[in-house]
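Pasting as-is:
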Amino acid sequence: MSDNPGTVLITGANGYLGLHVIDQALKRGYNVRGTVRSQKAADKVRATFPNDYGSRLTTISIEDLAKPELFHDAFDQTTTGVIHVASPVHGRVEDNVRDMLNPAIKGATGILEASKLYGGAALKRVVHVSSLAAMLDNSKDPRIGYVYDESDWNPTTFAEAASLKDRAALYLASKALSEKAVWAWMKDKQTNFDLSCLNPALVLGPHLEEIHNLDEITSTSKLLWQLMDAKEIPELQWAGVVDVRDTAAMLVAAVDTPAAGGQRFLLGHHFDWQTAADAAREALPEVKNRVPVGRPGTGKTKALENLYQVDGNKIVEVLGVEYRPLQATVKDTLHQFLEIESRQ
């Protein structure tokens, strides 16, 4: 990597993951151009990075990511990479195609269209944030003993997804169909950039932005708060977790690692609620009476007996970015949430 890596364009800059991606990109030496949908979102980015905003970090308002023409001013001759973090905001779904599938697909391919239209000669890599959901075949759950990796795809076709009644199944299908669409787009087009897709499992970890009330937290990290004052260990409904800080570091590393081009990566390592509870009770003495004991030390064995698992080793080998232990994620996240709770 050169001493002057240029500018990376990050969509969804004001989100839980987006802010962490900005943080990692700045630390890696990049200038950052972040897309937001409103002035309020831009203000959030500014408040989180007051020392860099206006110099190494700028934002641009793009209300509809599915319209490539709106990205005209988002690129310049220094843009070397794009990290597409943003995803459509799904409200009430009355029509699967109109409200879920088309926005997901057009939002994913729209950034590729924009990169082709406005990206200059310096643009070498677009990194698309997909999801483990695109790999899961929920029709086979709990799929005990199976280990998901980069070769797996949710098998739902567009026609099948169009008539799905189950919202969770529709979400999985939308992630797979939108990722398939970006790979198909790349195959059909001539570009001076290539593509990497990163598929995180459930993302947990502390927030970067200032939070005044626990009710403000809408990210997946809030799931860890289920441990607090629970009467028993929650039932495990998914396998695989990745710290938001590791996810961001991997996304940024994928921009400038040549071997990541044309590759698909699963991001995730083992998660179970018992191990998370054990970690919380050990690392945070003040919560010992608020977190259920369960059966300490048995979490991983029990999880392997009840649910599929994930293999997220490929990205570590290619990018050289290691996963931090689940214990660190649990400690840092709950510590932050407890501080917020104490101020309420």
